Every structure is written in structure tokens, then in C-alpha cells.
Amino acid sequence: MGFGLFLWLSLPHLPKPPVALARLVPNQKLASTPNLILTDTSGFRHALAAMHGRYVLLNMWASWCGPCVAELPALAKLASALPTSRLSVLAVDEERGANGIAAAFLKTHGADVLIPFADPGMEAMRAFHTYGFPTTILIDPDGQQVARAVGPAKWGDPASIAYFRKLTEPHTQP
Q: For residues 57 and 47, what is the distance between their CA atoms, to the nearest angstrom?
């Protein structure tokens, strides 16, 4: 019984997502975030590990993917609703040879508040074992992958925004 309790306590415990986030499925076991370096649209490199201490929603997309493009404004709405100190929404463009177009593409599609990155070598896809678009990974402040959404989700829905507000609110120690 003690080992079963240990296993249960070691699983990620996320509040149940609202219906609007039905595609956001909690991981069944903790998974560390890969030691990944992302390149922003200005060419600067950022270690994903440097974002520890806050939640990160890492969205992998491509401009030729209709569902990806359709969900970009919803991701932008979520990103606008919370400070980046609590939730950073990263838009990772996975197109081969598409360096430098992500920021302009996001602006054209009403999603320029998202933090754009280019991954033309598809290193993020390999590191996160991603096989389709869009795929979104939720990473907790400790750097653990705690949930994944495969396919578009309603990130900008009021219930989704409320979910992330509650999830990311600072907790005070008694």
C-alpha cells in the first residue's frame, strides 16, 4: 500500500481541464523537459530550462497546417490574459527552411503577442516526440511535462483562461 501511495503522489496532479480544453491530456507519468535551445525570430538562442519557475505552453505549428493557423488567435488570447511571469506561450514554427517568417506570419494572423521561435531542423519535434500538428506541451514551473494537447484546442475560451489563471496563481506557503 505504501508503494501505491508513493506512485500516486509522484504523478502530476493537474486540475481537470474544462471541456474547451478536452484535448489537453495530463501525462500519466512525470517527464522532464528536454534540454532544448530554441531560436527566436531575431536569431537569439534561448534555453527552455531558463523558463523554470513559471508554466510554459509550447505550441508546435506550421503555416501550412490549417488547424494550427486556426488556433493561433486563441493562443494569443490566452497569452494576453496572463502575465509571462506566470505563463509563457511559445509558438514554435516547425517548417523546414522557414527561418524569419514566424513573427510576420503570427502578426498577419492576429497572434503577434505570442513569443515566436523557429525550429527549421525540427529539433523540438524530435525532443518532444511530436508526430502531428498542432501539438502543445504544458510544462510546469519545475520543468516537468505535465500535459499535452494533440490537435487544436480552444485556448482563448473564457473557461480555458480561467483554468490557466487558477493553475498559475501564486501559492503562498503557510
A: 15
